[in-house]
Amino acid sequence: MRLLPASASLGSGLRRLALAAGLWLGLAPPAASSLADEPANPPAAPSGSATAVAPDPQPRPLPPAPEPQATATTPDGPPAGGLAALDSRQLRAPHDEPAHNVRRHYLWSNERRHDLFFPLLHGLGGAYMGVGGDQNYTLAAAAAADVLWLVDLDQAVVHMHRLYAALLPVALTPQELVALFDKRHRSEVHAAVAAAYPEGDEQRAVLQIYHAYRDLLHSHLQSELHRSHSARGTWLSDAQKYQHMHRLARAGRIISRLGDLTGPSTLHEIAETARKAGVPVHAIYLSNAESWFSYGPAFRSNVLALPFDDRSVILRTIKSAVLPYPAGDIWHYTIQRAQHFADGLSQPAYRSIDVAMVDAVPHKTPGVSLIGFPLKAGQTPLLAGKKSRERRDGKSALIASGLVTRPAGNRETAREMDRDRLRRAQLELSQTN
To answer: Which of 61, 279, 363, 433 is the most buried (most CB within 10 A)?
Structure first.
């Protein structure tokens, strides 16, 4: 489905730049960082360096509540150009799916080189959909997204996003946001959450995440704040990216939903909402979630329902014994044209991420590959120049050689979170009531 792109994006300092298919901008050499080889993630709860055994007892499933109240404009004007006149309640139409029981909470990502995605995200605008933690804010801001739909099957991650959505409007700078995770500021947090979520059960669920994981989130956010302050920076270390997210939050356009990439309803409702809004989904971030399920009927239906246009892209990471990792990271980064992915999903043999990655074209930047873009001079596909039978045999051999790997024992080796965190949160909440 082809839709007209949304018009001018957020704020006067952010404008859309048209990208030719396959355009790739030069990247500065990365500064190496020390990273432990942390585990891959379970399905649809990807890339978590903050991994946790769910506290005992588990939080009881709670009914969904309205998103934070939207602010019509900011001091810098309407938050999202072509969508400025749209009632944000329409964007919040998708519902939660039933809660899943998860063993660990993946609250943020251990992928460190999201800047490798930036060149093909620059100026895309439109809608952004992603799974996982706050790495989505970095990517959505790099894309100048007009609206974020965040989907996760872990209600702790969903409530964490709802916490951020409540705090971002009251924090004018990244430093102010990080400071809110110091326990001395919990009264301000309670006030912001109460204003955003007046319904009692949802308010308590969001505050429970704050009190249970405040110290870990504080440490993580401080780390993000002190990363590169250039255009390669994160949503907290790059002032422009933070301001983009601040404005989207004020407009009620950071929308988190309990849902599964292979689930029955949430993605279809996001697709329907995007169509009604007249906004294409320009970026989908899947992290490494595809490594943990096959492309069954539900996943195919969910992806094919989304309104793409010729600028839409799929962002993912994989473990691989064939493709290299970038300096300072433990993941391979790959970008696929969304229409190419949709065309593949219409074929029964296109059954998993292993098959999708056979079409990868290694990029000159180590640790990056492209799928479905026009070949440029010097680029060689993994199965270049092979005839039909040779390609079939080569494809099988490539997959068997570890094109996509799934480390054994990943969940057992993850860092376990203190089981008393939930009890501590409940105690602190009882003391504030």
So the answer is: 279
Predicted TM-score of the model (pTM): 0.78
Is residue 392 included in any domain, yes or no?
Answer: yes
Tens place of pLDDT for every residue, the chain, 433 residues?
A: 333 333 333 333 323 323 333 334 333 333 333 222 333 333 333 444 444 433 333 333 333 434 454 443 334 444 444 555 557 788 988 999 998 887 778 889 999 999 999 999 999 999 999 999 999 999 999 999 999 999 999 999 999 999 999 999 999 999 999 999 999 999 999 999 999 999 999 999 999 999 999 999 999 999 999 987 677 899 999 999 999 999 999 999 999 999 999 999 999 999 999 999 999 999 999 999 999 999 999 999 999 999 999 999 999 999 999 999 999 899 999 999 999 999 999 999 999 999 999 999 999 999 999 999 999 888 888 887 666 676 777 889 999 999 999 865 444 333 344 455 666 677 777 777 6
DSSP letters, 239-300, are: HHHHHHHHHHHHTT-EEEEE--TT-SSHHHHHHHHHHHHT--EEEEEEETGGGGS---HHHH
Is 200 exposed, middle or buried, given 0-12, 13-18 or 19+ CB atoms closer than 10 A?
Answer: exposed
Domain annotation covers residue 74: no
Question: Is 65 within the bounds of a domain?
Answer: no
- Tell me if 313 is assigned to some domain: yes
Q: Which residue has the tokens 């660990």?
A: 104
Total number of domains in the chain: 1
Which residues lie below 8 Å from residue 187, measured CB to CB, with a gap of 6+? none
Cα–Cα distance list, 330 to 233, 321, 334 (Å): 19, 11, 13
Residue 99's CB is within 10 A of a number of other CB atoms, namely: 16
Query: What's the number of CA atoms in the CB half-sphere (13 Å) around residue 47?
Result: 29
| CA dist., res. 120 & res. 85, Å (int) | 28
Identify the three-state secondary structure at position 336.
strand
Sign of the dihedral through C-alpha 307, 311, 316, 321: positive
Domain of residue 335: give its range: 81-432
∠ at Cα 145 (143, 151), nearest 5°?
A: 105
Which token pair is 165? 């959505």
Pairing, β 313-318 against β 332-337: antiparallel
Q: Are 407 and 40 in contact (CB under 8 A)?
A: yes
Q: Which amino acid is at 15?
A: R
281 DSSP β-pair partners: 127
Cβ atoms within 10 Å of 353's Cβ, excluding its own: 21
CB-CB neighbours of 25 under 10 Å: 9
